[in-house]
Amino acid sequence: MKALPEALQQLIQAFSRLPGIGKKTATRLAFHVLKMDKEQAMELARAIQHVKTNIRFCSICYNITETDPCPICRDPLRDKSTICVVESSEDILLIERTNEYKGLYHVLGGALSPLDGIGPEDLRIKELLNRLTPEVKEVILALNPSTEGEATAIYLARLIKPLNIKITRLARGVPLGSSLEFVDELTLSRAIQSRDEL
Amino acid sequence: MLLTRLRLENFRNYAQLDVAFQHGVHVLYGANGAGKTSVLEAIYYLALLRSFRTSQDKNLVQKGKEMFRIEGIFETPQGSHFKTHIAYSLREGKVLSLNGERVTRFIDYIGTIPVVLIAPSDLTISQSGPQMRRRFIDIMLSQSNKLYLNNLKEYKRALKHRNLLLQQEQPDETQLASWEALLARYGAEIIRKRVETVALLSEWVQTLYQELSAGTDKVKLVYRSGVKNLSDNVEAQLAQLLRANRARDAALGSTTVGPHRDDILFLLNGLPFRQVGSQGEHKTLIIALKLAEFRYLQQMHQQPPILLFDDIFGELDATRIQAMLGRLTEIGQVFVTTTSKNFFEKMHEIPASFHYYNVKNGTISAEVA
After folding, report:
1. What is the CATH number of domain B120-302?
2. Backbone angles phi, psi at A137, to 5 degrees
3. How many separate domains does chain A show?
4. What residue of B is the nearest CA neighbor of A154?
């Protein structure tokens, strides 16, 4: 490492702080940046700067946005009586792509996890409760089906229940468009457990 | 399921190994420390992605090396073949692939190769603490029920969260109740499956024990839980117990009720086996229990599991082993390790072909019959 110029070492370090990137990959990326033409490299630097200066959290739903409130919260056509709670902004993107949901969102910023030191105060739970005015009729819990996501859903349900608001969560079942033989056993077992009456 | 080929690299004392197996009983003989058990360990690892001798994969890496590989080629009862490959490295952990395609969720794989192991440590199953008995039922059910394996995994994870939360000075009550609700949900599922399975095993073990001992003694297995009324709402009871135990659990730093603390009682004529069973009776019980495990997996998978005997012939005499093998309705593939080869040469009444392998310092040579 000693042989490398200080500036390059700094870049390698910066890259290795990114998720899923180890020392080796960081070094490769840094050398790649070095070989890029100047305009491309500057564009990358500007893009990073731009993201950090212009993107912030919506003060209502905590989705990432360039304008506050975000376009979804400002949209007069969205159904204000329904709030869909998700763990991260990426989840909003996925649900929006379906064009099925016309209500509002709320981004928690993660899930409860004592093992990672994440408690209710680290998530935007108070902010969610503050949004639950009489206008809100339903809260949809669209958290990840992980242990932590499940516990967070139970936690939120316990807080919201006294407010007499309908609480729902995403159904779990077999994926569409494929035959049962391609569904993994675990998903199928769960689907059998949570079957619907016709 | 047949293991037709096993390849090892830097696994225990094997730098390289490439050996073919077939149908029938494989007797691996050799001196202590030659590497016999390591072969069984590798086969077991191919099935369950863990060792039965150590909980730490790094202990399986040959001294001075960075990684090990295990590769097995299997033949299904329908005659098709598949290849399981496991690469473990100290830096990146284990990578599993099936026919060259990476499998990231181990739950999807476990149970593909049903296996029953009988190792010296099993001989104390009816005499030692409850942990061994929970492990027995968990390993058997994990191989036959994905939902059980998943519930177990989620339960253990939620348990860690609750224990940690209890360590906080003023844990948030609602959060604690949420983790407990989750523990109760998974816990009740685990208990339900265990109760159902233990009842079934109890009947089988009872019959098998009487056959093996040619007697009329009554053997019974009873699931014993911290939850008092197993026929009532287990989930609600478990949630209530967790709530009631908070202070004690916080002081101890662990959760004192739930399936991870339950036990399976073995009774001989209504009395605890641990207290009234003779050494001989304990051994007969183990054989009956392992036969029941074999039968259970055989029914679930509609094929005989691979049977692994790890050096138990000092403790179990030839008559018992012969009685056990003789009672299997179908022998698929059996692997035994032993220091004395002649132990088996008297066993040819068993309707299976025998194959002998001499194990010496990390090499294996098949004996030509």
Report:
1. 1.20.1050.90
2. -105, -25
3. 2
4. B178
